[in-house]
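One chain is below:
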Amino acid sequence: MQKIIVVDDEPAVRGFVGNSLREAHFEVIEAAGGLDALAKIRSSRPDLVLLDIRMPGMDGLDVLMRLRRSPATKSLPVIFLTGTILEVDELVQALELDPSDFLTKEVSSRELVARVRWVLRRPVSRK
């Protein structure tokens, strides 16, 4: 069973995303923020991370930057979740970190699962 970490400071979003993925037979671990996510990523070695961009404390951009710097996680697929339209500077910064995909929080359960499966099937080639 593939393991996914869902990182969002909003319990309702974590619940929706987590339940959608569990129904699709994924193992789901939830994290409420950036530091919690990094600890759970290190300890559980997930196959993919769904990561909110805007969170208090350590945001998703900082989390992905740390993941990309570590040899153990530099190739880990990460899908950004966003609830708002990103400013150009924020979007450029996000793209430079090489996420696997972007999703809005208004995504349907079907699209969420389809995109997760699509990302997990793609070969990863980060140097």
